[in-house]
Amino acid sequence: MTTHGVPTAATAATELADESAPVDVPRATDEVVVLDYGGQYSQLIARRVRECGVFSELLPHHVGADEVARRKPKGVILSGGPASVYADGAPRLEKELLDLGVPVLGICYGMQLLANELGGRVEGAEVGEFGRSQLTVREPGRLLEGLPAEQRCWMSHRDTVYAAPEGFTELASSTESPVAAFESVERGIYGIQYHPEVVHTPYGQDVLKRFLGDVCECDMTWSAASIVEEQVARIREQVGDAKVICGLSGGVDSSVAAVLVHKAIGDQLTCIFVDHGLMRKGEGDQVIKAFREHYGIPLVAVDAEERFLEKLKGVTEPEAKRKLIGAEFIRVFEEEAAKVGDAKFLVQGTLYSDVIESGGGTGAATIKSHHNVGGLPEDLEFELVEPLRALFKDEVRAVGAELGLPERLVWRQPFPGPGLAIRVVGGEATKERLDVLRDADYILQDEIRKAGLYRELWQSFCVLPDVRTVGVQGDERTYGYVVVIRAVTSDDAMTADWARLPYDLLEQIASRMINELREVNRVVLDITSKPPGTIEWE
Ligand code: XMP
C-alpha cells in the first residue's frame, strides 16, 4: 500500500484551507443544490445538472435548510442513498426544505424520503430492482411531459414506493416499482425512483432538463467557461493589491489556476516552477515556454535536479522517497517564495472533487486522503486563492481551453508529485535510471498520441524495475533493463482497469524502446487493475 504524502508543485498547502468553506462565489447564473444522502451517483447528479447549463453544488444532506436557502437556489435535488427510510439512524428529510419556495426533486432514496414523510407508502420489496428496468409512463404530468410512454431506466433500490402521498399524481411504474415517479405541481414536489444521471437511462438528461427548465425555470446558460469573468472579479476582490505566488507543476490544474489569476491581477502574480529533475521529457521546458513566452507571466524556474538527486542517493523504500521529495520540495519552494518577497497569497489548483473527497463538500466520510495534501508544514503563512474550487476536472479543461492554454497542457494526463522517482522501483532513482525511464516514457507517449489514444487513457506511463535480464541482439548477449508499460482507464483514479492497447501498437512501442534505447532489452505489460493493484507501482 502506498500512502501518498507528496504535494505537487502546484498544490502545496491545501491542508490549510478551510475545507468546510462553501464555494461561495457570487454568481450571475442560477444554481440548483443537490443534497447528498450518500448515494454512489450523487456527484454525478451535480455534474449532469451542470451539463444542462445550470450551476450545481453537492452539499451534505445535513447542512440545514438555512444553509441551502443562503445559496438562493432555484431548486433542490435530494440524491439517492444506501439507507432504508425505516433503518435506525437513516438520514431524515428536513421538512423546512419543502418550505423554501423552490421545487424539490427526490431521486431514488430522495423520493422514498418524500413519500415516507408526506404520508405515502414505502415498503421493503421482496425483490430489489437493480440495473436495467422498463419504465411505463401512465400520466406524463409536468415532469415527464414529451417523453416516451415506454423507456428504459436504471434502478438501484430495495425499498419501493407503493402509494404516492395524498394529493400527488402517480406518473409511472416500472417492472418492480408500482410508483416509479410522482409529482405534486401545486406543492412543487417531484420524485423519481430511477437514476436519471446514469447513461443507462436514455431519457435521464431530458427529465433533468424538464425539472431544471420547466419546473424550476432556471436560466440554463451556465458553462465552465462562464466562470472565468466571475472568478476574475472574485480574485481581484480577494487579493486587492497584494502579491501572490503560485507553484506550477506542469499539470493542467495549476496551469489553469495560474493563468486565471494572472488574468485577474497581472504581474502581482509570480509563478514558481521547481524542476526536481523527475519530470517527463521536455515537460519543464514546455511549462517555462508557455508561461514566459506565451503568457508573459512572471516565472521563477528553479533547476533543483541536483539537490533532489543528492537526497535520493541510497534511498529505495517507496515511502521514504515520497517523504524526502515532499520535504525537499517544500524547502525549495519556500526559499524561492521568500525571494519573491512579501507575498500574501498562494494560488492552489484545488478542484471540486478534492473538496468533496476531503469531506469539505459533502460532509461525508473522507473517501481517501488526497494526494496533494499532507506532509506540509502547519505554518505556511499564505492565504489561499483557489479559483478552481467549484469545478470538476473536465470543466477545468474547458476553462483552460477558453483561456488559450496549449492543447497538450490542457489534456495532460495526471502525474504524481514525486514524479519519475516512484517509477524507478525496487532500487535507487539515479540519474542514469531516470534518464532511461524518461526516454522509454517519451516513446510510449509518442506512440499513444500517434494512435489517438492519449485522451482515452487516464494514464499511460512506464515503470523501470531494478532488474536486468538476458537478451540477444545482433548475435550478442545483452544484459539490460526491463521496461514495464502501464496504461489504465479510469474516471477518478479510485478504481482503474488496465487498458486493452492494440497488439500492433504494443509491438511498435516495444520495438522502438529496444531499438532506440541501448540499455533496454525487454518490454512487458502490466495487466493489473485497481484494485487489487494501485495505478503506480510505489
Ligand atoms: P495510486 O497509485 O494510489 O494512484 O492508484 C492514484 C492516482 O494518484 C496519483 N498519485 C499521486 N499524485 N502525488 C500526486 O500528486 C503523489 O504522491 C501521488 N501518488 C500517486 C497516481 O499517478 C494516480 O493518478
General description of the model:
α6 (252-265) packs across α11 (393-402) and α8 (305-312) packs antiparallel against α9 (318-340). The chain folds into 3 domains: 30-215, Class I glutamine amidotransferase (GATase) domain (Rossmann fold), CATH 3.40.50.880; 225-410, Rossmann fold, CATH 3.40.50; 430-525, 2-Layer Sandwich (GMP Synthetase, Chain A, domain 3), CATH 3.30.300. It contains 14 helices and 20 strands. The longest helix has 23 residues, at 318-340. The chain is α/β, with parallel strands linked by helices and 538 residues long. It has helices at residues 42-51, 65-70, 109-117, 204-215, 227-239, 252-265, 283-294, 305-312, 318-340, 352-357, 393-402, 407-410, 431-450, 503-516, and strands at 31-36, 55-60, 75-78, 104-107, 121-137, 150-163, 169-174, 181-184, 189-192, 243-248, 269-275, 299-303, 343-347, 383-385, 424-425, 459-465, 468-473, 476-489, 497-498, 520-525. It is globular and about 80 Å long. 47% of the residues are buried. It has a 9-stranded mixed beta sheet, with helices on both faces. Strands 15, 16, 17, 18, 19 and 20 form a 6-stranded mixed beta sheet that branches. Residues 1-23 and 360-376 have low confidence and may be disordered. The protein binds xanthosine-5'-monophosphate. The site of xanthosine-5'-monophosphate (XMP) has 17 residues, from loops.
